[in-house]
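Course assignment 3, question 2. Fill in each field.
Student: A.L.
Task: Predict the tertiary structure for the chain below.
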Amino acid sequence: NNLIYVVDPATDQRWTAPVNTLPDNIREPITSSNMQFYLNDSMLYMVGGYGWKDSIQNFVTWPTLTAVNMNRLMDAVINAKPIDSLFRQITDSSLAICGAHLAKLDSTYYLIFGHRFNGYYDRSDTTGFFEQQYSNQIRKFKIADDGTNLSLYDYKAVTDTNNFHRRDYNLLPMYDVYRGDGFLVFGGVFRKNANLPFFTPIEIFKDTALVRNDFNQNLSQYHSAVCALNDSAGMLQHDLFFGGMSMY
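Answer field:
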């Protein structure tokens, strides 16, 4: 991902800006794969991700939180202005996650499941070493951001080494009439004791996580394009999956 794109869907106008002008500590994490992200008003927060670290000539999971104001970034790209000063970043080992999701309830951010992977993911011979550690957690924190300084506070973690042992899954917002707003986790891989995906969804709310053992999800266990559609008349939510990889 060596370019930043801005697209106007109404006119099909397109603008680009290269990322190679950015310093390595910014450029490498934001061009990583399987990162987590959340757009809070106009501020985009990017967490973790798996990518190439040139200084050690190897792949790592980044322990970073990078912030950029999307309105200012789009203006800079469209008008060919410098973008370097628009990015801000902090480092925290608890953010070294990929294949997870970053979501928000009220003022609290939820870094849900995922894993930390260092080394060549596709290297199968004896010369390629890698380290992998599943999060097994829902990590909760708040972000202090005054436009200049970034920091995390009120950090908490909830651990379940069996049910939270997931990455590369789908997550959607949901609403429960009794528990209020929350998230619904679909599928994910891999089970701790078997090279198989999960078939049980998990409902996540402010103070609890419920494994739905009463439902079997046979399709789209891997991360894919997905959309939540709400039926306001029938008070139902329909989750529409596009493509994806399935066990069945």
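Instructor remarks: Residues 29 and 141 are 20 Å apart (CA to CA). The first strand starts at residue 3 and ends at 8.
Grade: pending
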